[in-house]
Amino acid sequence: MKDIHISAGRQKSELKWLAGCFCVAFLLNILSIIIYKTLWSEIFTQFLWVLIITCVLYAVSVFLRFGFYLIKRLF
Question: What are phi and psi of 6, to 5 degrees?
Fold first, then answer.
């Protein structure tokens, strides 16, 4: 079986994308607390949803970046 090697630069880049998605999801959680005037304890109680939204945003960003990469390679 062939090993797959991912460079350190690529790992750092993907971690930055994941951290960005987490920040967006966390800020959306804070925004929803402010808009709906709920308790601030929801920052902790809704953390699982923040993680789920982070994964969804990251998956969408991977899909879009791959699409842009394919378009760039074609032209």
Answer: -115, 125
